[in-house]
Amino acid sequence: MHCHVCGHPISMEWNYCPNCGHKVDKSKFLEDLKRVRDELMHEMDKYTTLKVKKILEPESHVYVRGDNKIYEIIMPGVKSRDDVDIRRIGESLEVRAIIGNKMYFKIINMPRDHYVVADDFEDNVLRLHVQQFD
User: Fold this and answer.
1) Structural domains of the chain sorted by starting position, each given as residue range(s) with its CATH number in brackets
2) Is the dihedral of CA 77, 81, 82, 84 positive or negative?
3) Which letter does DSSP use for residue 95 in this model?
4) Could you tell me the pLDDT band of residue 27, with boundaries at 50, 70 and 90?
5) Chain centroid to CA 27: how far?
6) Tens digits of per-residue pLDDT, 81-114?
């Protein structure tokens, strides 16, 4: 929450802004919360209304070079890196890409001491560069 007069960050518990001394209008805070909630709900609706009819596991290859691993994930139809979502979940990595009514979905086992240090996307191929750190 920020002071509506000077823009200084303030806590909901405070009655006055410590920067300018203006009385904190808590009703504006509630309006801000409602606005943010509505924006988040709108964003969530975009993803929950996707109608994926086909889930495909993309072809993939692993190359080992010393302590490094390079995972190549081939996803025909994917145009750019912006269309790919990569998430670390526990000891695995989820790779997703949605194109029209189909989704590419790949789970890669990855111990906790391994990290993606770089990624690149070119010609429908996502490359994940993975290293182990002690």
Assistant:
1) 1-49 (no CATH), 54-132 (2.60.40.790)
2) positive
3) E
4) confident
5) 32
6) 999 999 999 899 999 998 888 899 999 999 889 9
In which band, very low, low, confident or very high, does the pLDDT at 46 lie, cut at 50, 70 and 90? Answer: low
Query: Residue 126 phi/psi, 5° resolution?
Result: -95, 130
Radius of gyration for the chain, computed over Cα atoms and rounded to the nearest angstrom:
22
**Helix-strand-coil split of the chain, %, nearest 5:** 20, 45, 35
Distances 77 to 48, 49, 99, 122 between C-alpha atoms, Å: 22, 21, 7, 12
Contacts with 3 (C-beta within 8 Å, 6 or more apart), sequence order: 9, 10, 17, 19, 20, 22, 24
Q: How many Å separate Cα 18 from the centre of its chain?
A: 35
CA 99 to chain centre: 17
Tell me whether residue 75 is exposed, middle or buried, using C-beta atoms within 10 angstroms of its C-beta: 0 to 12, 13 to 18, 19 or more.
buried
CA distance 55 to 58: 9
